[in-house]
Specification:
The structure is a homodimer of 283-residue chains. The first copy, chain A, contains 7 helices and 11 strands. Chain A has 2 domains: 165 residues, 3-Layer(aba) Sandwich (PSTPO5379-like); 111 residues, 2-Layer Sandwich (PSTPO5379-like fold), CATH 3.30.2040. Chain A has 283 residues and is of the alpha+beta class. In chain A, 24% of the residues lie in helices and 22% in strands. Chain A starts with 18 loop residues before the first helix and ends with a helix. In chain A, a hairpin with a 6-residue loop joins strand 3 and strand 4. Chains A and B meet through helix 5 and strand 8 of A and helix 5 and strand 8 of B. Chains A, B: Belongs to the D-glutamate cyclase family. Chains A, B: GO terms for molecular function: lyase activity. Chains A, B: This is Putative hydro-lyase EL18_03362. Chains A, B: Keywords: Lyase.
Chain lengths: 283, 283
């Protein structure tokens, strides 16, 4: 471990300069915390791992619901590396915490996938909101839950996703509230990051999308809202997790919330980098 | 007059294929109506004509308030053509109706400026919202006042412009209301047209910007708002008109509301075209 890999060495409050450094620390058991803010400027991703028999339907589900499920990487069946997303990735060990879903069992939280890995498993990495939130912070737009050290509030909505095969379920949204002027800027900034859920899906009245009490989120922490704030709702990566939970796979794996795969890709160039990769693969 | 210049010949309901055709019809007295929708796809502009002694301060006012005052063209003192904006423009005759302001007198509506033109007059053309509204319509986003055949409602706000010399006054906004999903799209589409006032300045609660009763606009027609609509407020070209009215020039001229200068510039390429012109002039 190089000294510059870690700016702060107090417990889990480490900040890593490279995705590789963070992933190696995870793999070697030196880091197991959540990854929010731990690798500034680098694209992070939600994880979904499914048997190949379900992979086509899940990919179709993502294509039909690109706002909650922006695809940033897909492995071959059985493949544990993801060379498009980073150097020397081993998806079985490089995420700080995983959740394993099996029919009729409570989700199990594990530190690695060594004992459950199979040659038919297909890895999907989906964009998350961290890089968009970094852009807000960089633009000096206050993000209330970050300023308060809380998790973002998330809500199950009355909006249904477009189903695909075994995958269906409600759209889940995250909420950030802003002054109206900041809300306009947040809409514009987020629209430039389609791989981080893109532009919001709703603004204003929570009841219009089936949220009864904005102060009682279904996931995450209670929001902090200022008097003149307007709530802004973005599609959320919990959406595919709920669809996966309902898909009746004999085995399905996700990251544990907040514990993402950290890539080597600079967030601000993610759109062009990943489009470029897709294009090169097509040629 | 070529047959293709006019699609409909019923009274003032003409639609022109080119800016030149419309301007020539105006100059020759064959067209005197408002220009909304009369030259689809072409950039239209608000007009402000001021004595050279006040021109620097007005330009400074526009630079300091770019959302209400996006500059699309400025003539030399005494110059009546605007070659950057269109072929054979004569600013004294090519706008369907003008307003003349003189100290202590009520504004006077005139059809041309032949009798008042002076060699010290400087012409400013400022972007207007027509091209942005065309983009909304093209995106199939309902624009309530257009669908109802009304003028857009406009409001004097409690927000002050940044003053410059003799020019100051409140920010005036136009309001369009949408479903929340359409409001998000409208914010994104308008942000791509900074020369058509760009992104909105406010969304949601009208009282936050000093509007007491949204159903009683200061200018334009009463709004039509659906139950679940969210109001969205854009900076408006009436802002510089109010500043001009208060500037105590011995002579100041604007277009008559709704009666714009129609340019030859395709609205969708206006940003790059006008930036290109500015760049060429700098070289």
């Amino acid at each position: 471990m190089l000294a510059q890999d870690i700016h702060s060495q107090s417990g889990q409050e480490k900040v890593f300069d490279t995705g590789l450094a963070l992933r190696q620390a995870v793999r070697e058991g030196r880091f197991s915390g959540d990854t929010a803010g731990k690798a500034p400027g680098l694209l992070q991703g939600n994880l979904a791992i499914l048997p190949k028999a379900l992979a086509h339907d899940f990919l179709l589900f993502c294509q039909r619901n690109p706002k909650p499920c922006p695809i940033i990487g897909i492995g071959e069946a059985g493949e544990v590396s993801l060379p498009d997303l980073g150097q020397d990735i081993d998806i079985r060990t490089d995420v700080p915490a995983y959740r394993i879903f099996r029919p009729g069992q409570a989700p199990e939280r594990v530190d690695d996938l060594n004992s459950v890995w199979r040659d038919d498993l297909v890895t999907f990495v989906l964009g998350c909101s961290f890089s968009f939130e970094e852009a807000l912070v960089a633009a000096e737009i206050p993000v209330r839950h970050i300023d308060a050290g809380r998790n973002v509030p998330m809500y199950v909505t009355s909006i249904e996703t477009r189903p695909a095969g075994a995958f269906s379920g409600p759209l889940v949204v995250s909420m950030r509230s802003f002054s109206p002027a900041d809300a306009i800027q947040a809409i514009l900034l987020s629209s430039r990051q389609p791989l981080a859920h893109g532009a919001p899906v709703h603004i204003g009245d929570p009841a219009q999308i089936g949220i009864r009490d904005i102060m009682s989120p279904d996931f995450g922490d209670q929001p902090i809202m200022n008097d003149r704030d307007i709530p802004v709702f973005w599609a959320c990566g919990v959406t595919p997790q709920m669809a996966i939970r309902n898909c009746d796979a004999d085995l399905a794996i996700t990251h544990d919330p907040g514990h993402m795969l950290v890539t080597d890709i600079p967030a601000e160039t993610a759109e062009s980098r990943l489009w470029g990769i897709a294009q090169n693969n097509n040629n």
